[in-house]
Each structure stands twice: as structure tokens, then as C-alpha cells.
Amino acid sequence: MSLLRSLRAFLIRLSAIFPGRQSDTAFSEEMRSNLQLHIDDLMRSGMTEKQARREAALRFGGIEQTHQRYRERQTLPAFDNLLQDLRFALRQLRRTPGFSIIATIMLASGIGSSVAIFAFVDAALIKPLPYHDPATLAGVTESVKLMGPANLSYPDYLDWKQRNHSFRSLDIFTNSGRLLNLPSGTVPVSILRVSDGFFRTLGIAPMLGRDFYPGEDLPSAGNTVILSYDSWQKWFQGRADIIGQKITLSGIPQTIIGVMPETFDFAPGGSAEFWLPFHAVKGSCDLNRSCHSLYGIARLKDGITFAAALADMKDVAAELEREYPGSNRGQGAFVQPLSEDIVGDVRPILLTLLAGAMLLFIIACVNVASLLLVRSESRRKEIAVRGALGASRGRLLMQFFIESVTLVTIGAGLGICLAAVMMHLLSHLIPKFMLSRMPYLIGLSLNPHVLLFAAGITLAALILFAVTPLLRLPIGSLRDSLAESSRGSGTLFWRRIGANMIVIELAIAVVLLVGAGLLCKSFYRLLHVDLKYQPDHLAMVSVMVPESLYPKDDDLTRLQHQILTHVTALPGVESAALFSLPPSSYNGNTDWIRFVGRPYNGEHNEVNLREITTDAMKTLQAKLLSGRFFTETDDAAHPKVVIINQALARQYYPGQDPIGQRIGDDGLSPGSIKEIVGVVDDIKEGSLDSSIWPAVYYPLYQSQEHYFTLMVRTHPSEDAILPTLVSTINHLDPGIGTADPISMNRRIHESPTAYLHRSSAWLIGSFATLALLLGVIGIYGVIAYSVSQRTREIGIRMALGAQRNTVCQLILREAGTLAIIGITFGLASAVGAAILMRKLLFATAAWDATTLVAAALLLGASAMLASWFPALRAARVNPVEALRTE
Amino acid sequence: MSEMTERTDIWQGTLALMILKTIETMGPQHGYGIARRIEQTSGDRLSLNYGTLYPALLKLEQEGAIASEWGVSENNRKAKFYKLTRTGRRQLEKEARNWQETTAILNLFLASKGEQA
Predict the structure, then answer these.
(1) Does the beta-carbon distance from B77 to A37 stay under 8 Å?
(2) Which ipTM score applies to this complex?
(3) Which residue of A has its CA nearest to B88?
(4) Is the Cβ pair B75, A40 closer than 8 Å?
(5) Rounded to whole angstroms, how far apart are CA atoms A414 and A417?
(6) Is A5 in Cβ contact with B63 (below 8 Å)?
(7) What SS3 state is found at A529?
(8) Chain A residue closest in CA terms to B91
(9) 3-state secondary structure A758-827
(10) Among A55, A88, A687, B35, whose Cα sits 20 to 30 Å from the Cα of A493?
(11) A208-209 and A538-544 as β-strands: parallel, antiparallel, unpaired?
């Protein structure tokens, strides 16, 4: 109640700050009328008018005083002062537009980039995953020597699920493709096959219809499907009666039982549009304990840590290894927080970017702080005069504080707008395929977290700027400042602080420049890594042949021959081939091989496995090292053959000729024996930054696949032929699905690896450019100010015979010393920083000498250039004038 | 003059209560009238400074306890009249009760001094 009253009073007083002096006259009138009433009274009691007037005035007391007290109650005096200071501050800022604009831009860019990058960090690393209790969700896989975490096999999964003591539930998913048969045609779609409890483990229920019931993932259950919100909208226009309808996926009718909520996404599943129950297929990979194609997710039991779960799963894996020595030898277990699966690879990049942005922010702050110092220095007299005229110490401090607050507030406001723009731009620059891997970046916004961060760094800047002028305010010695004509002490003080600031700025700029240099070099090296094939003039398209249309290998071979014949006949096509997996995709999709005629200890020899058609190596222009490439006769009717890469030859046939040797599967089953006919150069099968694994290439016609990639080497333009490739295949059989037509060069440039390297190089590069610019402005400002303060000293030196050259050198030497100290500190810190971010570097050492030298030279040259102008000005000082003006 | 300095200055907290009570008894009243009435009621033992009265009136008005309006006085002078609002009436009742309670307790304390031995 009384609080409400006070609030009401406060608001009225607050609003009374603005309307001006109108109510003042009303009060004067009230006082006058009351005085008159008093006079009337006194006259009624017998006084003369003159006496009454005097008596009333006496009794009334000080009119001005009353007025003052009334006015103080009328508004909020402290607030009024504040407003006055604010107006004064704005006037000051307007009076020096150069300073104000530069300072505001610097602050805005520092705050803006930090906030924008933080928004990404928040979305990826701070915001919890959008699942129920995400902290107890684990990613569970097997683990092997060659690649570390590796997929699960279905039989292993079933045993893990039964034998573990750590998980409340363990479920699996695996990415796959299907052809969606619509009246309008056939569209390849991405799907996820999941075990029945997949959604329950995540703790997300469908928004329409139902979840899979327990046991629905067994082959005996009916064919059902759950849609993503997007596919519901895209293929079915969001029809409300969708539940119970049937769709056909690769020829098999499926009943729609549910639709997931719009907000649901599952990054490890890519851009899956449909979820199918697992339904293990007999005779396929699914029931083979050696065939690993699944990812596991699990919900930890209460109180179980990830480490405990890992130890538990390792025990289970070891048990299975003993039970199934053939298939499970060397198959370990791997358990980590699910968040690690989802954001593990972007964490170092985002943290590096955030560090870069924060460094930029610090440079901006130091720069503005030094500019503020320059200003407070040049306002010493003004402050002294105002102090002498009666401004209290507190009021003076307040005024400086308000000026800083005004500056920072404007800077922060602009910075947040800038951040919003940058966030919008950056997230729109992320290509769709990357975004589907990072769904948490969709709908990036200035949420409360981000705004809190913005407020935090703004506050930090505010404190810095509030403190800076205090250091320098000549409040203790008003008289000295007023009388001051020499600037000896001030300059000394100033030079110490200014020098420190330059050193900090330059050191940070070096760190950013070196970081940017290393990332750019990594990126360059990445794009110029020797792929051992010619990526230009290659065009490709994924082809998916439904098993229902081409169940037999012979049919498939005939179709593939047809495709190749038609495509090779196209104008401009030099050669064409099919690949089970095109090069530069990923390391994986492996085979276990065994060497005929050698002792075998049961350890898996894991190698990359690729199936290719006859002209594949010719199309890639890969180098044959010995033996031969495949010929048209390497088909199902002829003995099985294999081409190996050099890495395999070197590892398993050191000092021998592998040609003519034979390999087979780990059981050396008769049907698996193949003769090595050729050794090919180490084609980069994995991502650009991956290592070379041993690889085997089998003829596609001897080892059929329904899913393959058509690749052509074409002469004029590889992009122009893409639509023709698609239409040629569709023309052959409209039931065949095609997807992702792209040129090899574009595919490499847009690959996640290249993308991540490129974006970090670009962002850190732009931060470094800004840092360089700010550093140059900073050093220019400080040196120029130092020169202006030393005009008198320079005048004396010249009067005593110093040459203009000498003066110029004097200034340059001062700047040079600072630059050298700053750059030295910077180089040391840069190596440290680079070691911290070495995960992002590719084929580039943290102490890469060229980068370090280049950064140092660039910054040194810029610093000297920035001090050249003030030095020239110093040299042009006219000694007579310099001495007279002082 | 000496007579005036002997008068007690009013305590901050009580002035608002006196003003509200005065307006309640007298009905709408101008500042001068309120001041006179308070002095008279106190048997001229209180001296009311206008520099204190006007800000106090303003505060009560800002808090919504009283409202003001220009009017004409009994001898035909233009003056600003203050009247009690509903909030003001409630505030008066409450604060009067509080005050009576406080003084009653305080009296008990002061009276109990002799019984200590």
C-alpha cells in the first residue's frame, strides 16, 4: 500500500523532470495567494496594510528557499542532475564528432562481433539439447583400432542391450535412403531406421498419432512410418487426416502412424524425413555380426556416470569378443555424452572464434580507453576551471562517468544491432547441408542468454572506461592544473599508460593476425592437398535403383552398362564410371581382408572398400603404379580380381610385389578369394584432412550395389552437364532415383571439412583485419598525442640544434620500441594460442615461421606507417613558434 | 522573534498526519489555512515553516492522499484548495491508529520507570 503510494509519487516526480517551468509559476501564484490571505487576516486584526505586508513576509520566511525545497520535492534532483550531465555528455560527443564516431564504431564492432559469435556458441554449446533431460543421454558405439568410435552391428546391439547394467534404455538408428513413390514421380528421400524405443529414449513424443510400440521394430510387425514435421508439410500439405494413410517407400507400402513435432530435430540423423522401425532384413547386413552400420543412443540409469557406463560396456564388449572371436576380435566399446556426438566437432572452432571476437573486443576497449585518456588529458584545464567554480569532486567524476556511459551505451546499442545483422548473415551463409548437421543453429536469435552476455561485456567496458579517466583526473590538485603551463609530469604519466596500452593492443593484434594466418594457410593447404586424382572436370550424381525393380545382380549389371553407354555417348563426355562411394567422401565402409598363404592370428585387417566399374581410375585420372586396371571382362562370369592402393601394398606387402597375390575375407571362404591385379596411387578416399587408409577396389560387376554414384569426366563445363546426366538416367527408367548432382570441385569446396576450415579462416581473418586497423588507429592516436604534448620539448631540441631528421627519428624510435615490445609479446602469446587451436590446423605447425614473420612484418610496417605522419609533423615544428606558444 | 524560536519545530513524520487530520476536520482548505489551523490546534506551541509545509503538501498530492484545485476563499481571494481523497482518508485512519498505538506503548514505558526497584 505505502509502496504503491511511494511508487506513484516517484513516477510523478520522474515525469515532472520533463515538462519544464510551467508548474513553477503555478507555485509562485499559490505562495502569492497564501501571502495575501495572511495579509488580509492581519489587516482584519487591525494592522495597516504596510504593517500587515511586512509582518506576513516576515512570518512566511525565505521565499526563494521555500521555492527551492518545493522544486526539489517536485522532481528528482539527482535525476535532474543526471539528465543535465547526459545532455552535457552528448554535447561533448557532438563537439568532437571524429572521436565520437571512431570510438562508437570501434565499440560497436567489438561488442557486435563478440555478441554474434556468442550467439552461435550459446546455440551450440550452452543451450541444452532439445530432448528430455539431455545430460543423461549417451552416444554409444563400438570402437576399433583403425578409426576409434565405429558403428555397432545389430547382433552386438541386441547383446549390449540385454547385458548392460548402465542404461535405462539403449536404442539404435541408421541412416538410409528410400525412393518415395508419388503420383508425380519418384523422389529419393533420406530416412532413419530406428529401434522401437528411439523416441522414448530421447523423451520426445509425436505431435500427431503414436510412437512405435515395443516390438514394432521386429520384422514380424507391420510396415509403419513416422513423418518429420517438414515432410508432413512438404509431401502431404500438413493434412490433418494423415494418420492411417499409406505411402510407398521403394515399392513397399507403409502406414503412417505419427508426425513428429516441428521443433524436433536429431542432428546425427542428418536431414531424415521419415523414421522407419528397424525390421532386420534376412540375408542382409542387419543380421551379420561383422557388419557394422548402427549408431546407439542410450539413457543412463540414475547415478551412473558416463565413465561407469563406458567401463560397463567395455566389459560387455570383452565378453562378446570371447564368445565370438571371429567377428568381435578388437571390437571395443565407446560411450560419451550425446551432446559430444552432436557438437563435439564444432566446439573447438566456436571457442576459437569466440576467443578471436573477445580479443577484438579487448582491442576496441583499450583503444577507446586510450582515446578517452587523450581527451581527459586535453581537458585538464576545463576540469580545473569547473572545479574552481564550485563543481564538487563527485559531480565532476559523475560527469566523466556519464560521458563514458553515454559512449558505451550508444556503442553497445549499435553493437547489438550489428550482432543481429551478423547473426542473420552468418547463419544464412551456412549452406543447407551443413545446417542439417547443425540443426541447433536454426532460429538463432538474440535470446536472453545472448542479451545477458551483451550486458556483461558492456558492463565490463563501462567499468574500464569509468576507471580510466579517474586515473588521470587532476582533481586532487586543482590549483596546479589551473596554473600549469609546463606539461612535464602529465606527459610522463601519460607516456607510461599510453605505452602500455599500445603494447597490449599490438600484442593482441599479433595473436589475431597469426591465428588468421595459420587458419588461412591450413585452408590453402587443405584445398591444395594432393588428392592423387584430378578433381576438375568431374561431374557426378547419386543413383538409387530400387531392389523391387532390379532384384538380380545380372539385371543391375545390364542397367549399369546401359547407363554408361548412354552417358558416354553424350557430347563432351570423355569417360564415365560408377562408384559405390566416390572419392573424398569419408574413410569408412570397410572390409576385413585376409591374405592367402599367410598365417592369420585373427586380428582384423580393416581396409577401405570401394566398388568401381571398368573406367573408374581412367575417369579419375589416378595413377597406376603396377599391374593393370579393370577390364570389361572383370565381371561375374570371370574370376574375382582386386586393385589395392599403395598404402595397402606398403603395409601388407613390404618389399614384395603384390601383383598376383590373393586375398579373401577373414574366413578365406572360397567365393571371396580375389587376385590382386593392380596397385593404384593413394587416392584420397576420406575427407580432405583425413589420413590415407589401406584400400581395396573391387569390380562393381563382381560385387553389386543398388546405390552408386555415376561420375563423368567431361570437357567443356562439368556443371552444365549435370541436368543432362539426371535426365538421361530418368529417361532410361523413371523408377530410378537420382540425387545430389554436383561437380567434384564444388563438392570438395562445399565439403564440411572445407566449409569449417573456410569459415573459421574467414571469420578470424576479418577479426584480424579489424584488429590491425584498430591497432593502427590506436598507435597513430597515441603517437600523435605524444607529439602534440612534446611540441615544446621538440622546439627546445631544435633551438639547441637538433636536425629535423633527428627529431623524426626520435619519434619513430619511440614508436618502434613500443612496436617491437608489443610484437614480441604478441608472437609469444600467438604461439601459445596456436597450440591451443591446433585441432583446427591442417598440415601447418603452430609455430609456422612464415606466418609468424609475416604477421610481425605486417604489423611492424603498419605501426611504423601510422607513426610516420606524427613524426613528420614533429619534424616540421617551428622552434620559435613552439617556444612562443607555450 | 524570541517567542518564535521557542516554538517546537514539527517532526517530519507527523506533519503529514496533521495535515490530513486538519483537512478532514475543516474540509477543503488552502495552504495558509492549514498552517494557521495546525498552529492554533497546537495552542501556538508549533511553528510551521512554509518551506516545510508546501513540499509536504506536494508529497501528499504526489502520493495521491490529497488533491488540489483552484478556488475562491471566503473573502473572495483566489487560492489553491486541498481536499482529502479516498486513499487519503484510509491513510489518515491507518496512521492515526498507528500513532495512537505507538504513543500508548511509549506512555506505558515512561510510566513503568518507578516500578523498577
Answers:
(1) yes
(2) 0.82
(3) A5
(4) yes
(5) 5
(6) yes
(7) coil
(8) A2
(9) HHHHHHHHHHHHHHHHHHHHHHHHHHHHHHHHCHHHHHHHHHCCCCHHHHHHHHHHHHHHHHHHHHHHHH
(10) A88
(11) unpaired
Predicted confidence at residue A575, as pLDDT, reads 92
Q: Is the predicted pLDDT of residue A711 greater than 90, yes or no?
A: yes
Nearest residue on chain B to A72, judged by CA atoms? B55
> pLDDT tens-digit profile of A4-50?
888 888 888 877 776 655 567 788 888 888 888 888 888 888 888 88
A30 → closest Cβ in B33, B52, B80: B80
Q: Could you tell me if A295 and A152 are in contact, meaning their C-beta atoms sit under 8 angstroms apart?
A: yes
**What is the CB neighbour count within 10 angstroms for residue A389?**
7
- In a 13 Å sphere around the CA of A100, the CA atoms on its Cβ side amount to 15
> Does residue A213 surpass a pLDDT of 90?
no
DSSP assignment string, A682-699: ----S-TTPPPPPEEEEE
Helix residue spans in A837-848 (DSSP H): none
- Per the structure block, which three cell numbers stand in for A653? 606387402
Q: Please state the length of chain A.
A: 886
Q: pLDDT-derived band of residue A679, with 50, 70 and 90 as boundaries?
A: very high
pLDDT at A506 over 80: yes
Work out the minimum CA distance from B102 to partner chain A, whole angstroms.
18
Q: What average pLDDT does range A243-272 have in this prediction?
A: 86
User: Over the stretch A349-389, which tens digit does the pLDDT of each residue have?
Assistant: 888 889 888 989 998 888 888 877 777 766 777 777 877 77
Maximum distance among all alpha carbons in chain A?
Answer: 141
Coil, helix or strand for A642? strand
Q: Which of B73, B61, B78 minimizes the C-alpha distance to B27?
A: B73
Question: Do the Cβ atoms of B91 and A8 come within 8 Å?
Answer: no
Separation between Cα atoms, residue A713 and residue B46, nearest integer Å: 108
Contact B77 A69 (CB under 8 A): no
* Among candidate residues A333, A280, A329, the one with its CA nearest the CA of residue A143: A333
Residues A683/A687/A689/A695 CA torsion (nearest 10 deg): -40
A11 → chain B, closest CA residue: B62
Confidence of residue A697 (pLDDT cuts 50, 70, 90): very high
Cα gap A120→A354, rounded to integer Å? 9
Nearest CA in chain B to A32: B79
For the cut 60, the answer to whether the pLDDT of residue A489 exceeds it is no
* B17 interfaces chain A, CB cutoff of 8 Å: no
pLDDT digit string (tens) for A546-578?
Answer: 888 888 888 899 999 999 999 999 888 999 999
Strands A641-645 and A674-680: parallel
**Would you say A195 and A275 are in contact if contact means Cβ atoms under 8 Å apart?**
no
Rounded-to-integer distance, Cα A220 and Cα A217, Å: 8
Contact B64 A8 (CB under 8 A): yes
Q: Is B88 on the interface with A (CB under 8 A)?
A: no
Predicted pLDDT at A592: 85
Residue A119: closest CA among A395, A376, A418: A418
- pLDDT of A454 reads 92
Residues of A engaging B, defined by a Cβ cutoff of 8 Å: 5-6, 8-9, 12-13, 27, 29-31, 33-38, 40-41, 60-62, 65-66, 69-70, 72-74
Place of cell 605447425: A845
How far apart CA A249 and CA A546 sit, in angstroms, is: 10
For A397-414, what is each residue's pLDDT tens digit?
777 788 888 888 899 999
Q: Which of B36, B52, B78 sits opposite A33 (nearest CB)?
A: B78
pLDDT for A99-144, tens place per residue?
788 888 889 989 999 999 898 888 888 888 888 888 889 898 888 8
The type of residue at A326 is G
Cell 532460429, residue located: A443
What are phi and psi for residue A227, nearest 5 degrees?
-95, 150
Shortest alpha-carbon distance between residue B59 and chain A (Å): 7
Q: Are strands A605-612 and A332-337 parallel, antiparallel or unpaired?
A: unpaired
